[in-house]
Design goal:
By secondary structure, the chain is α/β, with parallel strands linked by helices. It is 28% helix and 25% strand. The termini are far apart. It has 7 helices and 15 strands. It folds into 2 domains: 42-83 and 274-312, Immunoglobulin-like, CATH 2.60.40; 88-272, von Willebrand factor, type A domain (Rossmann fold, 3-Layer(aba) Sandwich), CATH 3.40.50.410. It is globular. It has helices at 2-18, 103-117, 146-154, 164-174, 201-210, 231-246, 260-272, and strands at 22-25, 42-50, 65-69, 72-73, 75-83, 88-94, 124-130, 134-137, 183-188, 213-218, 252-253, 274-281, 293-299, 305-307, 311-312. The longest helix has 17 residues, at 2-18. The strands form 3 sheets. Strands 1-8-7-6-9-10-11 form a 7-stranded mixed beta sheet. Helix 2 (103-117) runs antiparallel to helix 3.
């Protein structure tokens, strides 16, 4: 009988392991982002340009821009417009108690975004969910299989606190920091962080800047969908989403209707596939890796506006590929 129970355990063990829906992520020293020393004189910047109506402008030339770093004029070496480059996407889905009533909307939104954006054989994505903890979902790595990603998204259950900043930090630290350029986070959350233990908002900002991660945030709090929520909490959450997106050159979306999501997804897809790539030579030859340098790109035509990250850390940015 003992032998039979032992054999039964061996047979059932793979089934039990296979049923596990997620792997909990933790911050530890073994997965620190790789620090790569690069040529500080060459700085690569990705940005988009829009007119006052929000239309993307993709036909500008090098002479159409002025560039400054910490208030000092800089010389632009090269300017390209990059279309349809491969994307590495971390999809972050809030499964905390504050979004429980909107869990299906979040799941539908995440799957719809992947269907609209992910190109088989070119782009790759990973799904990470979070409540009081942060979890990588099967297949636990970047993949171009929308079917596998969608299956995991459908298994997400809501409940618990909100560790949004932990999720942003760990997604960057453990996954995106190891990927080549075009690192993108799509964050579906109400932004109401109340349980992060591994990272503060400032630490998240620093890490995503160092790794050149672009963040787009989508709030599931469509008009009237969360009537029981505290207005101060909603405002605080909306502000957090706007901040983390704006600091990276991305945007935060607050759809008024469920039907607005499709237009928001199309906007994100167009932006990330129609970016300018600018290379300039910094006049600051210092190699202090911990001093943040701010650059400013200004179109000479005042009808246009640039969206980009705020700056960079010399010799800590990932090497261009």
């Amino acid at each position: 009988m003992k032998y039979l129970r032992y054999c039964l355990l061996i047979v059932l063990l793979p089934v039990v392991m296979a049923a596990s829906p997620a792997v909990r992520l933790q911050q530890d020293g073994s997965d620190e982002p790789q620090t790569i020393v690069v040529d500080v004189d060459r700085v690569n910047v990705l940005f988009t340009v829009k007119d006052k109506n929000g239309k993307l402008i993709t036909n500008l030339k090098q002479d159409d821009f002025r560039l400054e770093e910490d208030g000092r004029p800089q010389s632009i070496i090269k300017l390209n417009i990059d279309h349809d480059l491969p994307l590495n996407i971390a999809m972050l889905v809030d499964q905390s108690g504050t979004v429980q009533s909107q869990m299906k909307l979040e799941q539908d939104a995440a799957i719809e975004f992947l269907n609209k954006t992910l190109k088989h054989g070119k782009d790759r994505a990973i799904v990470i969910s979070f409540d009081s903890d942060v979890y990588a979902l099967a297949p636990y790595k970047f993949t171009d299989s929308i079917e596998d990603l969608s299956t995991s998204i459908r298994k997400i259950l809501a409940g618990g606190g909100t560790a949004m900043f932990d999720a942003l930090y760990l997604a960057t630290q453990k996954f995106l920091s190891k990927e080549p350029q075009r690192r993108l986070i799509v964050l579906i959350s109400d932004g109401q962080d109340n349980n992060s233990r591994n990272a503060t908002e400032a630490e998240v900002w620093q890490l995503v800047q160092k790794n050149e991660v672009l963040v787009y945030a989508i709030s599931p709090n469509v008009t009237g969908s969360m009537p029981n929520g505290d207005s101060k909490d909603r405002d605080r959450g909306d502000k957090a989403l706007r901040n983390v997106a704006a600091l990276t050159g991305g945007r935060a979306y607050f759809p008024k209707r469920v039907t607005d999501l499709e237009a928001d997804f199309q906007s994100i897809n167009e932006e990330v596939r129609s970016q300018y790539s600018l290379i300039y030579s910094s006049t600051n030859k210092s190699r202090d890796c911990n001093v943040f340098r701010r650059f400013k790109i200004t179109p000479k035509d005042t009808r246009y506006k640039v969206s980009t990250r705020e700056g960079y850390y010399p010799c800590l940015a990932p090497a261009s590929k």
